[in-house]
């Protein structure tokens, strides 16, 4: 059962998706939910079916007090590293909120202060607090939609299915076809990375 973090504060939950991918952006969302928001399907997005995530996305975007979604793309990931890019994506998502939160709750264990707003990092927070779970759903669905869009340009990598994660199929395609502008050059794209020509 997901909890409301603190009904006395205007709390924003934030989470990211795509941190471990070989291709595509890292995507973050930030959400402020109404105080008594609940939905029977709401949970960590990784535990949900595609149908449930899609239903939840519509519900969250319609019912949230406000939300923001931000991508940080491959070039920036390569320049500042994936941890900093993940935090930057969360900051950019929070910046989009039309109501300034009084407190920020973050999935995971790393974050950098946003303005002077207090924050708390919560391990597996997307399975504990509704605001983080809602952010995880938005981050995942928006990123998945982006990967399905760029799949049309490069169907040989099957991003529609693997979403840029390091599956055997994705790595086999990199080995056969090389890399695209959507691949993260700072990542170990293949086990034999040193022999890969950029």
TrEMBL record:
PROSITE patterns: RNASE_H_2 (PS51975). It is found in: Cytoplasm. GO terms for biological process: DNA replication, removal of RNA primer; mismatch repair. InterPro entries: RNase_HII, RNase_HII/HIII, RNase_HII/HIII_dom, RNaseH-like_sf, RNaseH_sf. CDD domains: RNase_HII_bacteria_HII_like. Its EC number is 3.1.26.4. The keyword Ion transport does not apply. Keywords: Cytoplasm, Endonuclease, Hydrolase, Manganese, Metal-binding, Nuclease. Manganese or magnesium. Binds 1 divalent metal ion per monomer in the absence of substrate. May bind a second metal ion after substrate binding. GO terms for cellular component: cytoplasm; ribonuclease H2 complex. One of its GO terms (molecular function) is RNA-DNA hybrid ribonuclease activity. Pfam families: RNase_HII. Gene3D superfamilies: Ribonuclease H-like superfamily/Ribonuclease H. The keyword Nuclease applies. A divalent metal cation binds at residues 15-16, 107. Its cofactor is Mg(2+); Mn(2+). PANTHER family: RIBONUCLEASE H2 SUBUNIT A (PTHR10954), RIBONUCLEASE HII (PTHR10954:SF18). Endonuclease that specifically degrades the RNA of RNA-DNA hybrids. Belongs to the RNase HII family. This is Ribonuclease HII. It comes from Christiangramia flava JLT2011.
């Amino acid at each position: 059962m997901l909890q409301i973090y603190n009904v006395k504060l205007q709390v924003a939950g934030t989470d990211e998706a795509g941190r471990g991918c070989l291709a595509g952006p890292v995507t973050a969302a930030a959400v402020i939910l109404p105080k008594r928001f609940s939905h029977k399907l709401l949970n960590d997005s990784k535990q949900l079916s595609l149908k449930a995530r899609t239903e939840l996305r519509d519900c969250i975007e319609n019912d949230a007090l406000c939300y923001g979604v931000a991508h940080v793309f491959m070039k920036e990931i390569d320049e500042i590293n994936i941890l900093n890019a993940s935090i930057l994506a969360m900051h950019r998502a929070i910046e989009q909120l039309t109501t300034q939160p009084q407190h920020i709750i973050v999935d995971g264990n790393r974050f950098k202060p946003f303005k002077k707003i207090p924050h708390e990092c919560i391990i597996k927070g997307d399975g504990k607090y509704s605001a983080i779970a809602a952010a995880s759903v938005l981050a995942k669905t928006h990123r998945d939609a982006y990967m399905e869009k760029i799949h049309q340009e490069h169907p040989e990598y099957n991003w529609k299915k693997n979403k840029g994660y390091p599956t055997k199929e994705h790595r086999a395609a990199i080995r056969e076809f090389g890399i695209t502008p959507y691949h993260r050059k700072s990542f170990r794209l293949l086990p034999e990375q040193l022999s890969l020509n950029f």
